[in-house]
Design goal:
It contains 7 helices and 2 strands; from the N terminus they run H-H-E-E-H-H-H-H-H. It has helices at residues 14-22, 33-45, 76-100, 106-114, 145-155, 163-166, 177-199, and strands at residues 62-64, 67-69. It has a two-stranded antiparallel sheet. A hairpin with a 2-residue loop joins strand 1 and strand 2 (67-69). 15% of the residues are buried.
Amino acid sequence: MLQLPDSTATRLPSQIWRDFLHGVPDDPNYHTKNGKRAHEIKQVFGQVFAEQDLDPAATGEAEWRERHFDVVDDEVGPLVMWEICELGFRYELYALDRAIRSSALEKERVVLLGRIFPSDSLFSVVHLPPRDECGLFASLPHHRIPSLNALRDVLSQWPLFPQHVAARRPLQISDSVDTIHEVELALAGFYTQTFFDIAGRAPIIPHHCPRPIV
């Protein structure tokens, strides 16, 4: 929803988000509490979903990556949670960047942010990562280098970015694990503190994919 320039998603009360996740109240009367919430939810989500695509039912079969199930098992559950965290991190990073940077640079910022992630995809996880894929979620430090450099390109344009990180050259494949960790820690610390200063809470952060697809 943040992809919509005039999206009101960021101004929704948390209670409405909880109501939507638990099922849109089925009450056509706008004068009741449930009816008013149902109307507000449909007004916002109607900007993204066509009426026939917005299923307010809280129960029923779920679909995820061409798999259908009504019970999330131990194999699928961790992968679904990983994708939720990954998307949460991407959208929070995008929202914070949009709050800090000029809206006139929207398209350029989306391209710059996209370079942090596999397939240059900011708004979606194109595929579950194989074991050797590069990204902030990668287990091997050297596989995180391209994404860390791209993240630095974004954060370095924010106010109060650490000068000792800005003065360094981009990470190289020849750098030691200690060097990678040093830069990674500085970037993570700056991002999480900046997010907390503006949002008043801790951000969602990248996680290792629990069961990489081989």
